[in-house]
Design brief:
The protein is mainly beta. Helix content is 5%, strand content 30%. The structure holds MU-OXO-diiron and calcium ion (2 copies). The site of MU-OXO-diiron (FEO) has 7 residues, from loops.
């Protein structure tokens, strides 16, 4: 390791001993003196660049269409979640897993930056096969130079999974699926404690049919002309074993799967928390049937069997997990989307053919058991010190009686009763998004999306104000471009947001991760120029983008960057 290399954000592991408040009160003032900010916070800005605090810099590691060394494939579009796994036997090397969520096609009022830019960078018009290659997952074998810069190297580990790759399935659904292949709409995910990575299929309904019948059957169709029941799952991949076939774990449910966050303890079941990112979507929890053993070979198996639950949030701050199984009692949400209930039916098992059908239609089944409709659940993360669960709700809800009135979104904190695998919990609103207040700009955010904890238990939050609202809707002007915020969870500054990064125009930041040495943060820059496309002469920021080249007229390219100090 080069002597001059700085440990990025060295403060992350420092201090705060004894300051952490137990129970639900993370904002309890401690007697500690205020700490200096861990970096000089930036102000919100509409600059067309990835803007960082003084003393930090970024290198572009991979851009959309970059040829992956040693392969005949390319880095995909709209990078999202990233996960870094060190290669223990090779100091200075690791594997970076990067999700590719979707391609930016024309929405009402938008240019469709993907079809606009594809011919410029690829020299031909895009086909559906290109869209199918540009979603999924990139696995990048990285090596760090003496100067600290990371580069992708040719190796069997550097590879792609896309909408056509070979897949397997576990659990109660897809056991008789024909032609199971591909992963798409890959949004967030997580590491497993046994060294694999989970990637979550979110807005699959833009590519394949979403609706299923009460036997769990969909149909072949959509832009990608594929069976809709094959998508919307959590997929396990082994970044360090290219020969292992990824597994879709159906017991974790099928919905617009934003994320999964895992809690492990030796001799206990694995617990996974997940969100269904749609207006009035639900929060889920998986509890494995088998226990976790450190060092055990759980790849492909530990997530294959267990129970799936969905959250009910009561207005008094308590909550309960309701199991999505055949015995679950019907208590349908008013005016919600769910299958027709046969006359006299009292349980999910009397609506659906079997457990496989229930988990395949998890959104409908959740509405049938009275699960709480939420304000677009985005990322969920587990606090590394006290094990509480933080959920980013990125927007408000609309269902009758919902608990999500905040237009700017909120971060909630839940604490499980007992050992974390029971059915009761308490919840609190931990941090509200907004308001649109110029006096507080740089300390307020809107539309929280991905969350990440550092080892000291402080939260890093990236925002995803929708392209239609960003710098356009006057209720969102204070925030300028999307950004990244640091929010302590303990100490005298608990709950105070400090802006760390600002995204290029019409982009969101996504999927922060760190190296084991914590000298580098990896970060995705997703959909620059999504609304207005390439910025040309006469068009001013915040409309359009030329990132990362920043030359007027150049196509904006989604990318993943390495940030160092
Ligand atoms: Fe892919 Fe809900 O963000
Ligand atoms: Ca997200
Ligand atoms: Ca998002």
């Amino acid at each position: 390791m080069a002597g001059g290399r700085r440990q990025f954000l060295k403060f992350l592991g420092a201090g705060l001993t004894g300051a952490y408040a137990s129970g639900l009160g993370p904002l309890a003032a401690s007697a500690q003196a205020p700490r200096p900010a861990p970096f000089p916070p930036i102000r919100p800005t509409s600059r067309d660049d990835l803007v960082l605090p003084a003393g930090f810099r970024y290198d572009v590691l991979a851009r959309w269409t970059d040829r992956l060394p040693g392969t005949n494939t390319r880095f995909g579009y709209n990078a999202d979640f990233t996960a870094f796994l060190p290669i223990r036997s090779e100091p200075g090397q690791g594997v970076l897993v990067v999700n590719h969520e979707y391609v930016s096609l024309p929405e009402p009022g938008e240019i469709g930056v993907y079809p606009q830019t594809f011919p410029l960078v690829m020299g031909r018009a895009p086909r559906i096969a290109d869209e199918m290659e540009d979603v999924g997952v990139s696995v990048l074998h990285l090596r760090q130079s003496a100067s600290g810069r990371w580069e992708i190297i040719a190796s069997p580990l550097t590879r792609r999974y896309d909408a056509s790759s070979r897949m397997a399935a576990s659990g109660p659904a897809l056991q008789n699926a024909h032609g199971l292949a591909g992963t798409l709409a890959n949004c967030s995910g997580c590491h497993t404690p046994w060294g694999t990575v989970l990637t979550c299929e979110e807005n699959f309904q833009n590519c394949v049919p979403e609706a299923v019948d009460t036997a769990g059957r969909s149909r072949v169709g959509g832009r990608f002309d594929r069976d809709g029941a094959h998508f919307g799952w959590v997929v396990e991949i082994d970044p360090l074993d290219p020969d292992w076939t990824p597994v879709k774990h159906t017991m974790l449910g099928r919905y617009r799967h934003e994320n999964v966050a895992m809690r492990e303890a030796a001799g206990r079941p694995i617990v996974g928390y997940m969100g269904d990112d749609r207006v009035n979507g639900h929060v889920y929890r998986f509890v494995s049937a088998q226990s976790y053993t450190p060092g055990g070979d759980h790849r492909g198996t530990l997530l294959a069997r267990g129970r799936l639950y969905v959250a009910v949030f009561h207005a008094d701050g308590t909550g309960e997990w309701r199991e999505l199984g055949p015995e679950a009692a019907l208590e349908p949400n008013p005016n919600s989307s769910h299958p027709r209930v046969p006359r006299g039916a009292k349980t999910l098992g009397q609506v659906y053919a079997d457990l496989g059908a229930i988990v395949t239609d998890a959104f409908g089944a959740s509405n049938l058991v009275g699960a709480s409709p939420c304000g677009r659940p985005e990322d969920i993360e587990i606090h590394p010190i006290d094990g509480s669960v933080y959920i980013a709700f990125t927007a408000s809800a609309t269902a009758p009686g919902h608990l999500f009135p905040n237009l700017y979104g909120e971060i909630w904190r839940i604490v499980e009763d007992g050992d974390g695998a029971g059915t009761r919990f308490t919840w609190m609103r931990w941090k509200a998004g907004g308001p649109n207040d110029e006096q507080r700009s740089g300390h307020v955010f809107a539309a929280p999306d991905n969350l990440a904890f550092d080892p000291a238990g402080h939260l890093w939050v990236v925002t995803d104000i929708t392209t239609a609202r960003l710098n356009a809707d006057e209720r969102f002007t204070t925030f300028h471009n999307n950004g990244m915020f640091f929010v302590p969870t303990s100490g005298t500054e608990a709950g105070v947001a400090l802006q760390f990064a600002s995204a290029p125009c019409e982009a969101e930041l996504a999927g922060p991760s760190w190296t084991a040495a914590r000298d580098t943060m990896f970060l995705s820059v997703q959909h620059p120029g999504e609304g207005s496309g390439i910025r040309g002469a006469g068009v001013k920021a915040p409309r359009g983008s030329n990132w990362p080249s920043r030359r007027l007229g150049d196509p904006p390219l989604p990318a993943v960057v390495a940030i160092r100090q």
